[in-house]
Amino acid sequence: MKPVNVGLLGLGTVGAGTVNLLAENAREITRRAGRTVRVTHAAVRDLSKPRACDVEGIRISDDPAAVVADPEVDVVLELIGGTDEAYRLVMAAIEHGKHVVTANKHLIALYGNEIFAAADNRGVVVTFEAAVAGGIPIIKAIREGLAANRIEWLAGIINGTSNFILSQMMFEGKEFDEALAEAQELGYAEADPTFDVEGVDAAHKLAILGSIAFGIPLSYDQIYTQGIRDLAVEDIAYCEEMGYRIKHLGIARRQDGGVEMRVHPTLVSEKALLASVEGEKNAVMVYGDAVGPTVYYGAGAGAGPTASAVVADLIDTVRIMSVDPAGRVPHLAFQPDQISNEPIMGAEDFYCGHYFRIQVADEPGVMAEITGLLAELDVSIEAILQKDPEEGGDDAFIIIVTKPVREGRLIEGLDQIRALPYTREGVVHMRVAQFED
Ligand code: NAP
Ligand code: HSE
After folding, report:
1. I want to staple 258 with a disulfide (CB 3.0 to 4.6 A). Which of 6, 56, 246, 343 is the partner?
2. Closest ligand to 304 CA?
3. 229 with 181, same domain?
C-alpha cells in the first residue's frame, strides 16, 4: 500500500522525539498500521537550529502553512504549541481535508469545541492523546476502555513539571526556582513555564478529561485553578507530620446539580496511591460505576513518552483513514448531539476536607475559640497541630485538617477566624482529597 506522508509542524522536544521514535520502531509501526508511515515535510521557526533527530530525507521549511497545504501530505502533526498560529494551521489542515494529530492541550482546551465540529463537518479526525498525561493513554482509556461506565469522578497528577518540582523540594531539599530550571532543561516545562506552576496547563488537561468523562463541552474557563507557586516548605513538612503529602491535582466530579472541576495543591493521605507518584510521573484515577476505581500511571512529559502518544495517534489515524466517518470514535467520546451542558460548580459548592495554618498570638483560650467556632458551623476536625513559627516571637501556628464539608461553610468559618483579634495576616488554606483506592 502507498506510504502515509506526514507533515510535521515543530521539531522541538516532542517533534524530534516523534521523528526518532518513527525511525527506531519503524518496523513495529508498519506492522501495526498496515502501511509505512514517513515524515516527508517539516516546518520550524529557525532553520539554522541543530535538531535532536536525523532529518535526512525530510523537506524542512519555515513555512508551516505550505506544509499544511501540500497535496503530498496526508496527515499533519501539530507540535508547535501555542494557540494563534496553531489554531490557524489546524483549521487550515482540516479545510484541506487532512487528519491532524496534536499534543497541544492549550489549543484543544480553548478551541477544541470548534475544531472538532469543523473536523466532523469535513470528515477528518483530530487526535490528541499526547495532550493529557504525556505517555499515558488516558484519553483512549476513558473514551474507549471505560465506555460502558458512567464516570463518577477522576483525579490526577497531570502536570509533570509541578510534580517534579514538589518531589525535588521534598526529597532533595531544592529551592523552587532551581527545581523549575531543571524541569525546563529536561524538556518537561511549557514554553511559558508559568502555565505549569500556576496550574494553567493542568486546567487545560482537566478540561479535556472532564469533557470526555462526562460528555460535556470543553469548559476550561470555568475551572477553579491554583498552582504550586505559593506553596511554603513548612506546609510540606507539617502535612508530612500529619500523614499527608501535598500533590498538585486536577479533580473532576459529578455532584448533585452539576460537575465540580478544580485544579489545586491537595493533601492526600501518604497511604494513597497518588501520594507515591514522584518526579515527572503522572497518574490519573478514574472511577466508573461498573468498574470501580482504576489507575493509570506513567511518564507525563518529555520527548520519548510524549512521542509514544503522538505516534499511537498517528497509527490510529492511518487505520481509520478507510473507515466511514460515522463509524469512528467521537472526538469527545460522546456523539456530538449528545454533549450536554451540565453546570460547572463554583468553589462554594466543592465538597472536601480542608487544611489551614493560622498564625495567632500564643495566648490561653485561642485554640479553644477557633475549634469552638468550627464546631458552631458543624465543621468536624480530623487532625490538629500546634507549632512554633521559626520567626514570630510569641506567636504560634495552629494547623487544622477538617473532615469533608461544603466549602461555602468552611469559608464562613475562616472569615470569622481571620477576624479574631489574635489572628495574624495570611491564613494558609489547602484542600484535602480522599479516594477509594
Ligand atoms: P518546543 O520544544 O518549544 O518545540 C516547538 C517547535 O515548534 C520548535 O521546533 C519550533 O521551531 C517550532 N515552532 C514554533 N512556532 C512555530 C511556527 N510559527 N512555525 C514553525 N515552527 C514553529 O515545544 P515542545 O515541548 O516540543 O511542545 C510542543 C507541543 O507539545 C506543545 O503544544 C506542548 O504543550 C505539547 N507537549 C509537550 C510535552 C513535553 O513534555 N515537552 C508533553 C506533552 C505535550 P524552532 O525549533 O525553530 O524554534
Ligand atoms: N509541561 C507539561 C507538564 C508537559 O509538565 O506536564 C506535558 O504535558
Report:
1. 343
2. 1
3. yes
Domain identity same for 193 and 308: no
Return the amino acid letter for 403. K
Q: How far is the CA of 278 from the centre of ligand 2 (A)?
A: 14
213 & 255 share domain: yes
pLDDT digits (tens, 9 = 90+) for 201-259: 999 999 999 999 999 999 999 999 999 999 998 899 999 999 999 999 999 999 988 99
Q: What mean pLDDT, rounded, does the chain reach?
A: 95
**Catalytic-role residue among 98, 105, 140, 205:** 205
61 CB within 6 A, ligand 1: no
Pocket of ligand 1, candidates 14, 102, 200: which has the most ligand atoms within 8 Å of its Cβ, to mutate?
14
Question: With 90 as the cut, is the pLDDT of residue 340 above it?
Answer: yes
Cα–Cα distance between 376 and 390 in angstroms, integer? Answer: 32
- The closest of 166, 108, 157, 100 to 314, measured between CA atoms, is 100
Is 205 tagged catalytic? yes
Expressed as residue numbers, the domain containing 174 is 138-299
In this structure, are 284 and 166 located in the same domain? yes
CATH of the domain at 369: 3.30.70.260
293 and 308, same domain (yes or no): no
**Cα 357 to Cα 342: distance, rounded to the nearest angstrom:** 35
Is residue 155 domain-shared with residue 292, that is, in the same domain?
Answer: yes
pLDDT, tens digit, for every residue of 94-146? Answer: 999 999 999 999 999 999 999 999 999 999 999 999 999 999 999 999 999 99
Ligand 2 centre to CA of 161 (Å) is 6
For atom 1 of ligand 2, which residue has the closest CA?
A: 189
- Of the candidates 284, 309, 298, which has an alpha carbon nearest to the alpha carbon of residue 79? 309
Asked if 130 and 306 touch (Cβ cutoff 8 Å), the reply is: yes
- The total domain count for the chain is 3
Taking the C-alpha atoms of residue 407 and residue 430, their distance in angstroms, rounded to an integer, is 11
**Picking from 30-39, 294-303, 417-426, which range would have the lowest pLDDT averaged per residue?**
417-426
Q: Is the pLDDT of residue 437 over 70?
A: no
